[in-house]
Amino acid sequence: MELTLDLTASRQHLIRCRLRFTPIHQALELHLPVWTPGSYLQRDYVRQLQNLELVQAGAVVPLVRREPSVWTAQLKPLLPVEVNYGAMATELTVRTCHLDDDHACLTLAALALQVNGARWTPHHLHLLLPEGWEPFVPLPCLDGPTEHRWIAASFDQLVDTPVEAGPHRWHGFEVHGVPHRWVCWSAVGGDPNPLLERYPQLLDDVAGVCSACCRLMGEPAPAAADYLFVLHLLERGFGGLEHDNATVLQYGLEELAKPGGYRRFLQLVGHEYLHQWNVRRLRPAELTPIDYDRPMVVPTLWFAEGVTSYYDQFLPRLAGIGTDADLWDDLGAELSRYLLTPGRLLGQTLRQSSQEAWVKLYRQDAYSGDNQISYYLKGAVVALVLDLQLRRAGSSLAAVLRALWQTHGRWRRGYSEADLIEAFAAQLPELRKQLPAWLEGQEDPPLHEALHSVGLVLVPHKDTAPFTGLACSTSNSSLSVQKVARHSPAEAAGLCVADELIALDGWRLHTPSDLTHRWQEGRSHSLTIGRHGRLRCLSVQPAAPAVQSWRLQPDPDGPAAALALRTQWLQLVPC
């Protein structure tokens, strides 16, 4: 199997694809994946495909579309086949394809056709590049690095390979003897590696975070034999996608300029790097093997992503970057976000959040916060509670993670939810009942009690303005409703998302501040709105100011035993 990708039509944003192979069946099937591992949303990459044509022995063979992303053909004797097609590359995310004059970033799930019977056979990749471009591909080179040819052991390894190309500079470093490459493309122009200008210690810090992941897992070296970091530095944006021996990251300069922005960037690095153990090799059974044709219900995504999200905040600190106060700020912000999400109590259980990832988490709307909770977010909260409860019993979450790595991850043996529960119960028997209850119930796990055990408290901070549960924004000189909180005065008044806010007590409204400074607690206000072209008058009675945020801080009255446990906890590694 040889897949050739011609990137020379960069100004058309068009990837010209050619797949050559010798079939082993006369009844041929071609499948294009509908999703890419690590991002649980059906993306239907077939939307970008065009001009699909199959040629054998110089003649075009008709293709029959059996499903939107599946084609069949009846071949003549088993002679070599060539499949030609184009793919538009205009989506700049870590899970799609983007091609322009500056660079190419390719998700091969969007480009590689799977041939029936050839999934486990070697696949060759060949790139045709614009002049002056260099490719970055985490696969073994074939015929030397200047030939732009690589070999994947299987279709799975090919699909797991991110491709970055462009006139980029790159930097190398090692983590416990394992070579790493760092390549950055800056969408905002200028120096392609502005992070290194601003933070000359960047590569040392990244290497430190990578080493901290190894320490956490109790491993002398990374799981991968080599590793590629690809960073897209944007004006604004945030995200990452993990691969067996690579990751693609996106980060915004606006976020970087905020207090703690660099630290949060290193947390993103740590999150995706830790995934080479937890998710890529230590993998849910439902993803072993992966079915690229359809979504699979995975009830344990809370462990795959939640546990990783819990640890990513600690990894820079474990690498000696930042202070304990920084950690309290970051962890407190996540706990505040969790406690201020109504959907954690009203919408989903943690298991349901994992199971419904395909249809809810990646399809947010104005009401999502009221009827769902992220398995990243609540999974991290449950991980925190589990870690502290295990530590009080002389164990730790890291001990569970390491044990699962030895029994499942090292052998790429998929785990079930029952396997996870048994792994926790082996460290603390009472978790055999407690953990399923936290997964199945909508109540909070004992978060405050867990924090108290390490001498920390969450302190509520109330808003200064009366509570209405109404969020609004200005667009095209019109003030409109963005969100209506569940069980709020705004909901009781009958407000809906997209309502135009026109006047309050006869005063014309133009900006959100026109509202906030006029609300009075306990008083009934007359709010004039526009909905579907008609004016309406609603009565809104604001309530007492609500909690605006929670802050995590040490308890000055905490006992010495709590301080000792906190010191041990901050080291992350098992007792």
What does this entry look like structurally?
Strand 6 (64-67) and strand 7 (70-74) form a beta hairpin. The protein has 575 residues and is of the alpha+beta class. The protein folds into 4 domains: 2-166, Immunoglobulin-like, CATH 2.60.40.3650; 170-277, Orthogonal Bundle (Neutral Protease, domain 2), CATH 1.10.390.10; 315-459 and 554-569, Orthogonal Bundle (Neutral Protease, domain 2); 470-545, PDZ domain (Pdz3 Domain, Roll). The strands form 7 sheets. It has a 7-stranded mixed beta sheet with strand order 5-4-8-2-1-12-14. It has 19 helices and 28 strands.
Task: Detail the topology: elements first, then pairings.
Layout: E1 2-6, E2 14-21, E3 27-31, E4 49-56, E5 59-61, E6 64-67, E7 70-74, E8 81-88, E9 98-99, E10 104-107, E11 114-115, E12 123-128, E13 134-136, E14 149-152, H1 155-159, E15 162-166, E16 170-175, E17 178-186, H2 194-198, H3 202-217, E18 227-234, E19 238-243, E20 246-252, H4 253-257, H5 261-274, H6 301-312, H7 315-318, H8 324-339, H9 343-346, H10 350-355, H11 368-371, H12 375-392, H13 397-407, H14 417-427, H15 431-440, H16 447-452, E21 456-462, E22 470-475, E23 478-484, H17 489-493, E24 500-504, E25 507-508, H18 512-516, E26 525-531, E27 534-540, E28 547-554, H19 560-569
Parallel strand pairs: 1-12, 17-18, 18-20
Antiparallel strand pairs: 1-2, 2-8, 3-7, 3-11, 4-5, 4-8, 6-7, 9-10, 10-15, 12-14, 13-15, 16-17, 19-20, 21-28, 22-23, 24-25, 24-26, 26-27
Helix pairs in contact: 3-5, 5-6, 6-12, 13-14, 14-15
